[in-house]
Design goal:
Elements: E1 4-5, H1 6-24, H2 28-56, H3 64-78, E2 85-87, H4 91-96, E3 107-113, H5 117-125, E4 130-137, E5 140-147, E6 153-161, E7 167-172, E8 175-179, H6 181-187, E9 192-195, E10 198-201, H7 205-208
Parallel strand pairs: 3-6
Antiparallel strand pairs: 1-4, 2-3, 4-5, 5-6, 6-7, 7-8, 9-10
Helix pairs in contact: 1-2
Length: about 220
């Protein structure tokens, strides 16, 4: 799987420009400033590389359960401020039931209202442990919340609430699934779970087993 993160591309372009300036610059003050910026950009490159490795690999480690639970708690606290979302992976029930997660994948699927993406990004920017990541996969824009320094991510699947009171799930540019108001009553129920005294919203179990959300 080839992933190109937009920020990664921008950093490469900035590094190329800064290295060119360093080669031509004679002012010691400006040289020092340029070199400091280069070091900061290279540090960020390393963080992005860690994320890419986490997304690309099916990582299983001894801290797997702790990482998943810690991520789950942090994100539930983050989203308690009025966000429109639904967890879409059965693993959340296994976390709630305190089951062993050592053999689980390191990603959790979540439906997220696309109109709130900007609000989510600003909220995540205020944290010290989470990053919002946008990347390309198979020509489609993908979004994820990454728990820094771990391989754990929450994959965000955008959805839209439409005028007929239905929901359109946007798996990719070429794959949209429209659920009517009647279907929402059964599938997109306001089913809540609770873990560590934090409530979260989760899809009905029946829909999580269908192809669009399996994983």
């Amino acid at each position: 799987m080839s992933i190109r993160i937009e920020e990664e591309i921008a950093i490469e372009e900035m590094l190329e420009e800064l290295n060119s300036k360093v080669a031509d610059e004679t002012s010691s003050v400006k040289l020092s400033r340029y070199k400091k910026l280069i070091l900061e950009l290279k540090k960020r490159q390393g963080e992005l590389e860690s994320f890419k490795n986490a997304v690309s690999a099916n990582f299983v480690g001894t801290d797997q359960t702790n990482n998943l639970i810690s991520m789950f708690n942090r994100v539930n606290l983050l989203l308690s401020g009025g966000f429109d979302y639904y967890y879409a992976s059965p693993i959340v029930d296994r976390i709630r039931d305190n089951e062993d997660l050592s053999s689980e994948r390191t990603s959790i699927n979540m439906l997220f209202n696309e109109k709130q993406l900007d609000k989510l990004i600003k909220t995540i920017d205020c944290t010290k442990s989470l990053d919002f990541i946008k990347y390309q996969k198979d020509g489609n824009d993908k979004y994820a919340i990454w728990y820094r320094a771990t391989p754990v991510t929450i994959n965000l699947i955008p959805f839209e609430r439409v005028k007929d009171k239905g929901v359109v799930v946007k798996k990719s540019r070429n794959e949209e699934i429209h659920y009517t108001e009647d279907q929402i009553g059964n599938l997109f129920s306001n089913r809540h779970g609770e873990y560590s005294n934090l409530e979260y919203r989760v899809l009905a179990k029946s829909i999580m087993q269908t192809k669009p959300f399996r994983g």
